[in-house]
Amino acid sequence: MQVTCYPARLQGDIRAIPSKSYAHRILICAALADKPTRVVMDTRLSEDIAATAHCLSALGATFAEEDGALIVTPISECPKAPILDCGESGSTLRFLLPVVAALGCGAVFTGSGKLPQRPIGPLVKALRAGGGVSIDNESLPLKIEGKLSSLRYTLPGNISSQFITGLLLAFTILPDGGEIILENRLESAAYVDMTLNTLSAFLFSVESTKKGFAVPAGQKLLSPAEIAVEGDWSNIAFFLTAGAFGGPVTCRELSLKSLQGDLAITELLSRFGAKVKRTEDYIETKAGKLTGIEIDARQIPDLVPILAVIASVSTGKTKIGGAARLRIKESDRLKTVRRMLENLGGKVEEGDSFLLIEGQENLRGGIVDCCGDHRIAMAAAVAATVCREKTVLVGAESVAKSYPRFFEDYKMLGGNCDVINDR
């Protein structure tokens, strides 16, 4: 899909879509719980959430749509060695690989796009070291057989928090509990906090230790009967930032008490100089005098593309550091963010783990290859609103990975774009 975006001022009222991060966790817990769960959420699923639902279905769970919710009936009996197609969803793969190991049914995991190139080696090695399972590869496609036999696993904390979440979810199946030892500091800790919060909603407790996490024995997931998926701070960040270029943009169905790390977007926009109003009912952003700042991205990697966009039109320089992990996302995001901004006339320097951006009054416009990365596509669309000329997004269908209706909402807020479906 190719989208041509023209300069425009985004303004108006929008409701946040359900959190992708929470939806993954809630659907998996519901599929492993003791009885059906009504999950209140938009049933127009993103590609990543659909991948998790399809894999859980292949493992024996069932899903039914009902009045703005999904009714999840848990797995009662797993088929032997189902094929689990994770699509391009890293969360689906990294969460369900340990779950399948705990279920003991075996499976063949497949995927598409850049997923076969994304790292899972440390997780595979940890599962192998624990014994009881065999895994024939450290990248997709792979086959897993056997059942987890160890109650203790050691993982690096600075590679992917999803590895820790996957093991915590696996321990919900094992009656004897388990322990995770972290070799170093945990990055993206907010994502593990979301996992702990979701487990708590299913009345399952996890203890934090000096070295990592411990799961007490004798527990199982107990359905809360109904649970709502809260609004997604990661995706609404694009429109909150668009409001900082003009606005006002008012965003609803967001929790200021959320454990999502990307809630930090409101504080960061304020630091840049945007006018941000926070209430229990809505968040409003509008233009202010924008000035460059310094950002540590270790806990908020998904915000980097849109933060780079606001930095490109903020007076002075902005340094976004602590961003080495962006190289193993859907694209090498340090490289693709740099190329996006350079193609639009921005001034940016790329380092091993940082971006240094020199702000200008506006951007020129140009052609952006979205590189199969949903966050590059959405960031470039927002950047187009502050360009002097049109911006052409090549491969913009990637937004469906996390935000299928992104361009509908973009137009609703006043965005001017032509969408050409070429597939």
Indicate the topology.
Layout: E1 2-6, E2 12-15, H1 20-32, E3 37-40, H2 47-58, E4 62-65, E5 69-73, E6 83-85, H3 90-103, E7 107-110, H4 121-130, E8 133-135, E9 142-146, E10 152-155, H5 161-171, E11 178-182, H6 189-201, E12 207-208, E13 212-215, E14 226-228, H7 233-243, E15 249-252, H8 265-272, E16 275-278, E17 282-286, E18 294-296, H9 304-312, E19 317-321, H10 333-343, E20 347-350, E21 355-358, E22 366-369, H11 374-384, E23 391-394, H12 406-412, E24 416-420
Parallel strand pairs: 2-15, 3-14, 6-7, 10-11, 18-19, 22-23
Antiparallel strand pairs: 1-23, 1-24, 3-5, 4-5, 7-9, 8-9, 11-13, 12-13, 15-17, 16-17, 19-21, 20-21
Task: Please provide a written account of the structure.
This protein is an alpha/beta fold. It starts with a strand and ends with a strand. It has twelve helices and 24 strands. Helix 1 packs parallel to helix 2 (47-58), helix 1 (20-32) runs parallel beside helix 3 and helix 5 (161-171) packs parallel to helix 6. The strands form six sheets. Strands 22-23-1-24 form a four-stranded mixed beta sheet. The protein has two domains: 2-17 and 231-420, Enolpyruvate transferase domain (UDP-n-acetylglucosamine1-carboxyvinyl-transferase, Chain), CATH 3.65.10.10; 20-228, Alpha-beta prism (UDP-n-acetylglucosamine1-carboxyvinyl-transferase, Chain). It has helices at residues 20-32, 47-58, 90-103, 121-130, 161-171, 189-201, 233-243, 265-272, 304-312, 333-343, 374-384, 406-412; strands spanning 2-6, 12-15, 37-40, 62-65, 69-73, 83-85, 107-110, 133-135, 142-146, 152-155, 178-182, 207-208, 212-215, 226-228, 249-252, 275-278, 282-286, 294-296, 317-321, 347-350, 355-358, 366-369, 391-394, 416-420.
